[in-house]
Specification:
The protein has helices spanning 3-33, 39-49, 53-75, 87-112, 122-128, 130-133, 142-163, 168-182, 186-189, 208-230, 261-290, 305-320, 334-363, 368-389, 393-399. The protein is built from 15 helices and no strands. The protein has one domain (3-323). It starts with a helix and ends in an 8-residue tail after the last helix. The relative contact order is 0.14. The chain has 407 residues and is an all-alpha fold.
Amino acid sequence: MTRFRTDLLRLLSMGMVLAIHATGPYEYHFLKSHDFFSQDWLAVVLNQLARFSVPVFIMLSGYGLIMKYGLIGEKDGLSPQQIRIPVKSFFAERAYKIGLPFLAWSILYLAIQGKLKGPYTGEWLLGLLPYLYRTGADYHFYFFHIIFECYLVFPALAYTMSRLPRFRTPILILSFLLQLYVSSPAHIWFSDLPRIPFLFSAFILYWQFPFVLGIYYAFRSLKTRENLVSTGQALNGSSQQFEHASGNAPRAGSRTHPVSAAYGKARAFALAFGVTGAFALALWEYVFWSWRSENPGDFNHFTRMSVMIYSALFFLAFYYWPEKERLPRQEPNVWSRWIPYLAGLSFFVFIAHTWILRGLQQILPEWMLVVLILLIILSFGLAAVLDRIVKPAILRTALGLDSKKTR
């Protein structure tokens, strides 16, 4: 998968996170009225359409980490079976790039909410601890907890799947079955079987399949790259130019000439059909449960199995979508410049957008689409301004911006 595709997928997922948060309040109106010719129903459709976003972020995290260390190893002459994860430096880098903004923004948000006023006792301190590992300082900070847990298991998982390539597919299958067992509506399907006690929604048990899936397909990408090198085909060393197992790029172990145009179209149709069908299933499931509860929090989870399947197919559509043939000296277009730039701002947008959204919903409570459009513009606009004016690397990192200017 080209770097442009992963950037596009990251940016699209970020936009869908904004859509989920902007449409959330309208779900309650729909559950009371079930008016299918209303703004509330449109909000529900957008909300379910956007549900792939957070699982895909987890997939991209696993995919990106393996590609990073795989390409580093390639420069040292190592195969995908020899990937090295420097554990100490890995955790130090993650703590700085992700842990620092989490801590900085958590302190800021807790201060805004008045939770840092004291009294400064042991009980007060213990009351703050859940914000750092379970609930989060704002309602969307659960994502930090998920990603920290993924980082915690990544070195061991990467080592195992690197050194034991024959077990990659069995590991993926076991991961899927475990996800099936813990995801809604497993409590109905497997009601007669022993249930794993519920801990909290950000616990890695409920998110491990997207992470494993991303890692699995990163290894497929590296294997394809290795095969291309072994057959003598020219490869650009940059991961931005690498195309894996999609469209005109050959699959690992396959013939090395491009696939036919007819096969590419058939594949694109199958991928589009699968994603559309999975979305329809997730939407149908939402409507089904909406007649049985007046609180969407009871059933509208990312870790519903229908959403996990929808998210996986969405990711695979980007992975396998046929690649257009490019001319050797084709000039970059406007999209190739702006998509990576905006994707580089998405981490800050994710962290800061909820406060912009609260203000917009106070001003325009009845204008869902207007609020969503303004939220996108203002969130990315603020990120772009800060990206231009903030210079100290540690401050940029604390804000959730790249340590170096994106543009």
